[in-house]
Specification:
Elements (H helix, E strand, L loop, with lengths): L2 E2 L2 E2 L8 E5 L11 E6 L3 E15 L2 E8 H9 L8 E4 L3 E6 L10 H4 L5 H4 L13 E2 L10 E6 L2 E8 L4 E3 L2 E8 H10 L6 E4 L3 E3 L1
Antiparallel strand pairs: 1-2, 3-8, 4-5, 4-8, 5-6, 6-7, 9-15, 10-11, 10-15, 11-13, 12-13, 13-14
Length: 204
């Protein structure tokens, strides 16, 4: 059995995505998943940064696109896609921690609804960690972001396109890449299907 430090490869927990100020990653912002923070209002997610930061009226800004718009622009170059010009200080970027940096609750605790008090934010405009939980603990998986554990690390940017089902005795979830998922959404082209064992999958 292939093993990594601390146990078998399939027992590892993916590191969380940490929201960091976009200003901390200047020059490496294009295409990153992003959050838009509105003070005392809330958090807008499902966004991507389009391009790098630029000056507008003396302040650094970035352009944000919806996840669908981001993929529409890349799958159909030249297609005009709306972008939201946003002051840089309002944007947080999902930064994936390394295994060495990760400090997170055990899988059972992460999936425990009664851990609410430990997850409370200081206010409505403060994003928290996106802590992966075992996909088997979550209802209604189709459409969710999926992480696959592999012997070499993590396979990111997957989407669930089914609910778990029995495939010759193995509990399985059909997945595809995020790009193929949005191509299906935008053009109707069915994605290549990857039937993956549920026990190797996590979701955020």
């Amino acid at each position: 059995m292939f093993e990594v430090e601390g146990g078998n490869w399939f027992d590892r927990t993916p590191p969380p995505a940490v929201p960091v100020p976009a200003a901390d990653l200047l020059g490496d912002l294009d295409s990153r998943p992003a959050l838009l923070i509105r003070e005392n209002i809330g958090i807008l997610s499902g966004l991507r940064i389009f391009g790098e930061a630029y000056d507008h009226d003396g302040r650094p800004h970035v352009d944000l696109q919806s996840e669908e718009g981001y993929w529409r622009a890349r799958l159909n170059p030249g297609t005009p896609v709306p972008a939201l010009r946003t002051p840089l200080e309002r944007v947080r970027v999902e930064h994936r921690q390394t295994d060495d940096q990760a400090q997170q609750p055990a899988p059972a605790a992460a999936a425990d609804a009664y851990g609410l008090w430990d997850r409370l934010a200081p206010g409505p405009d403060t994003p928290g960690l996106r802590v992966p939980v075992p996909a088997r603990t979550v209802r209604h998986l189709h459409g969710r972001r999926i992480i696959q554990v592999t012997p070499l690390g993590w396979a990111w940017d997957l989407r669930a396109i089914s609910e778990p089902y029995d495939l010759d005795g193995d509990i399985t979830l059909n997945c595809c890449s995020a790009q193929d998922y949005y191509r299906w959404l935008i053009s109707g082209t069915p994605p290549p299907v990857a039937p993956l064992p549920l026990y190797l999958l996590w979701t955020e």
